[in-house]
Amino acid sequence: MSEIGLNDCVTVASLLFAIGFLGVMLRRNLLTVLMSIELMLNASNLLLVSFSRYNASPDAPMAALDGPVFVFFIIAVAAAEVAIGLAIVVALRRKRGTVMADELNALAN
Amino acid sequence: MMDILFYALSALAALSALGVVVCRNAVNGAMCLMLSLTGVAGIYLLLGSFPLFGFQILVYAGAIASLFLFVIMLLDVDQAAAERPKALALAGSTLAFAALLWASLSLIGQIDPPEPLPAAAFPGETAPSASIMTLARALLTRHMLPFQTVGFMLLVAMLSVVLTSRSANKEDQAEAAPVESEASSS
């Protein structure tokens, strides 16, 4: 990593986060919204890894792995969240017949 | 060489992320998501965390994105009812996107980031990029409590999926959704 600095990684992560945010705001298909949320999670994972990499010091070698370990947990949590979210979408589709957010405008029928 | 790789991988990640947001067809969006996750995995590789590169491809791009594809194909979203974004929603979302991007990017350059230390600066085998043993050691000693808690959480998630997929209606029992058992990957 010769000239790639922390700022470059933060730029990429901010871009990914903003694009995911755009997807959540703009799209009405629930599945696309869930995929955009995954993009935002990925952006924060990238931020964690890059900060941990650029702030690692041999004085605290265990602390240098806090970033990747946290990302490991976030990936596990994201997996669980996607599984449950998709189960909810499937149940919703079965009940209401649609996955478009603007047609799901009643808590009970 | 590393710079070219980094720029190429970040371009891949960002452009495919844009593809997720823009694609009308949900299957195309899921494939773009897979591509974006693989790009981010490449950036992890360049940053030196090799186990994360593996987990990202295995779990995120391999399991989570595939799960999205399964559900998209299961639900068979009608393409004729494809959404057209309203003008106000498009304008507002783009404005919010630009504001968020500007706010994040304006923070860059405020602080001089430290130089990353090469792996040789770490004594013995304790460099983060030395091997997966360093991650395993940290996971099983320093982060044992979250590790066990995440395992328990995955069990709870699996149970929730099974319960959510069951239907209260007896006639729907026959067409209950298949159980997602991908939570055993970590």
Structure description:
The complex is a heterodimer of chains A (109) and B (186). With 109 residues, chain A is mostly helical. Chain A contains three helices and no strands. In chain A, helix 1 runs antiparallel to helix 2 (30-54) and helix 2 (30-54) runs antiparallel to helix 3. Chain A is elongated. The relative contact order of chain B is 0.07. Chain B is 65% helix and 0% strand. The two termini of chain B are 33 Å apart.
Main pleated-sheet profile of chain B: none
- Taking pLDDT < 50 over at least 5 consecutive residues as the criterion, the unreliable ranges of chain B are none
Task: Give Rg of chain B in angstroms.
Answer: 21 Å
In terms of structural class, how would the helical and strand content of chain B be classed? mainly alpha
Run of helices and strands of chain A = HHH
Q: Hey, roughly how much beta strand do the residues of chain A contain? A: under 5%
Q: Estimate the strand proportion of chain B.
A: under 5%
Structural class of chain A: mainly alpha
Shape of chain A: elongated
Number of helical segments of chain B?
Answer: 6
Structure annotation, total helices of chain A = 3
Q: Name the assembly state.
A: heterodimer
Q: C-alpha Rg of chain A, in Å?
A: 18 Å
Summarize it.
The complex is a heterodimer of chains A (109) and B (186). By secondary structure, chain A is an all-alpha fold. Helix content of chain A is 71%, strand content 0%.
Secondary structure layout:
The complex is a heterodimer of chains A (109) and B (186).
Chain A: H1 6-26, H2 30-54, H3 66-96
Chain B: H1 2-22, H2 26-46, H3 50-75, H4 87-106, H5 132-142, H6 144-165
Helix pairs in contact in B: 1-2, 2-3
